[in-house]
């Protein structure tokens, strides 16, 4: 949970400036995903939350694909900062 608190401090600084950027949207989806993942560890049969998690994962994946096509450097920096896996490119 220490990592999440550091990320939340970073988000508060960026929250005021650039909410519409792809990086901020991916960041906000990542925090939602981590929260839902911890929720689903406790409530394994919560199928509504599972569906919501899959929808958010898909949105984040589409945004990451867009960012990797537009700016590979910003994409690499973002996935390293958030500690998420790189998407598979076709």
From TrEMBL:
Q: Which UniProt keywords apply?
A: Chloroplast, Plastid, Ribonucleoprotein, Ribosomal protein
Q: What is its main location?
A: plastid
Against InterPro entries, the record matches this protein to: Ribosomal_uS15, Ribosomal_uS15_bac-type
Indicate whether Ribosomal protein appears among the record's keywords: yes
**Gene Ontology terms: biological process:** translation
Q: Which GO terms describe its cellular component?
A: chloroplast; ribonucleoprotein complex; ribosome
Q: Where in the cell is it found?
A: Plastid, Chloroplast
Its Gene Ontology molecular function terms?
Answer: structural constituent of ribosome
Q: Which HAMAP family match?
A: Ribosomal_uS15_B
Q: Which family does it belong to?
A: Belongs to the universal ribosomal protein uS15 family.
Which PANTHER family does the annotation name? RIBOSOMAL PROTEIN S15, BACTERIAL AND ORGANELLAR, SMALL RIBOSOMAL SUBUNIT PROTEIN US15M
Q: How does it assemble?
A: Part of the 30S ribosomal subunit.
Protein name as it appears in the record: Small ribosomal subunit protein uS15c
Q: What is the lineage of its organism?
A: Eukaryota, Viridiplantae, Streptophyta, Embryophyta, Tracheophyta
User: What is the name of the gene encoding this protein?
Assistant: rps15
